[in-house]
Write a structure and sequence with these properties.
- The chain is an alpha/beta fold and about 300 residues long.
- The chain has one domain.
- About 35% of the residues lie in helices and about 20% in strands.
- The protein has 10 helices and 11 strands.
- An 8-stranded mixed beta sheet has the order 10-9-8-5-4-3-1-11. The protein has a 3-stranded antiparallel beta sheet with strand order 2-6-7, with helices on one face.
- The protein is globular.
- The protein binds iron/sulfur cluster (SF4) (2 copies).
């Protein structure tokens, strides 16, 4: 057991230093993502595997993949020069929990070497329930689950397949399993005291009218904040081939307002759709200052 402290902190203490969970904190505290997780266990119709996972990151970007050992060295290097650094997250470039050895080896190394940094994870949620013990042991107290639908009939339009317990599922069956695992994973995290952010990709013509229901369901299950991110259509994806368009800023705002109206949870409106290797305050990206060459050459 590396550290046990954060599950005993109040929600306010947890969010006060996390730039994504607190609008106030995002002016003062920095986050960094380490890209250690290349594989994924589902196929979202807005995803091209050539780029970062759209769960939490800006599609169309290729992040610099590092090993767990390199990730820990990178974190220590950045932390030594960036006093505002408060959170280290793993958000891709695939799904962190589809790469559990790499993801948890990285978190364990950071928890041992830099115990003051908070740990953060973003996932599609398919295998969350299988990793609850590791999440608890490492006190990972901020977790984002991307839930784009709570109705499998809508989910089947968003996901082509899932790969779960050595079996591939498609269509409605895939969406039913995924949504069930996401919602049960959310409940398990909330009961552990983890602050759960839910991301939903706003997909015009598919889930735009459904996101208020998503907000209501996740709010009732104890999610802390809902972050609706606009679809960014990427080349070579099912949605691009089907002619799905990006939502406009006006559409995004209308959906956010509708969700806020129906849901007791807070809406996140300051997300910058960062890269899976982003570094710095939200809205700035200093990842190019901390390349592999730089931190691996640092003694
Ligand atoms: Fe792509 Fe979806 Fe997997 Fe993320 S969760 S890597 S968006 S398929
Ligand atoms: Fe925060 Fe959004 Fe960036 Fe994730 S993608 S680190 S939620 S600002």
């Amino acid at each position: 057991l590396v550290k046990e402290k954060s599950t005993f902190l109040s929600d306010e203490s947890k969010t006060a230093r996390h730039p994504c969970y607190s609008e106030e904190a995002h002016h003062h505290f920095a986050r960094m993502h380490v890209a250690v997780a290349p594989k994924c266990n589902i196929s979202c119709n807005f995803c091209s595997r050539k780029f970062d996972c759209a769960n939490e990151s800006r599609p169309g970007v290729v992040s610099e993949l590092v090993t767990p050992d390199e990730a820990v060295r990178k974190v220590l290097f950045v932390a030594s020069g960036m006093k505002q650094l408060s959170v280290v997250g793993i958000a891709g470039p695939g799904d962190p929990l589809a790469n559990p050895e790499k993801t948890f080896a990285t978190f364990k190394g950071i928890a041992e070497e830099a115990p003051d940094l908070r740990l953060c994870l973003s996932t599609n949620g398919l295998t969350l329930l299988d990793h609850i013990d590791q999440i608890k042991a490492l006190s990972i107290d901020h977790i984002t689950i991307t839930i784009n639908a709570v109705d499998p009939e809508i989910g089947k339009e968003i996901y082509s397949w899932i790969y779960y317990k050595k079996k591939r599922y498609k269509g409605l069956e895939a969406a039913k399993i995924l949504i069930d695992r996401q919602l049960r994973g959310l409940e398990a995290l909330v009961s552990l005291g983890v602050l759960v952010k839910v991301n939903s990709v706003l997909i015009p013509g598919i889930n735009a009218d459904h996101l208020a229901e998503v907000s209501e369901v996740i709010g009732a299950k104890g999610a802390f904040i809902h972050n609706i991110v606009p679809l960014i259509v990427t080349p070579d994806t099912v949605f691009e081939k089907n002619g799905i368009k990006n939502p406009t800023a006006v559409e995004l705002q209308a959906v956010q307002e509708k969700c806020q109206g129906d849901s007791p949870i807070k809406m996140m409106k300051h997300c910058h759709q960062c890269r899976a290797d982003a570094i710095g305050l939200l809205g700035e990206d200093r990842s190019s200052e901390f390349t592999k060459e730089e931190f691996l050459n640092k003694k």
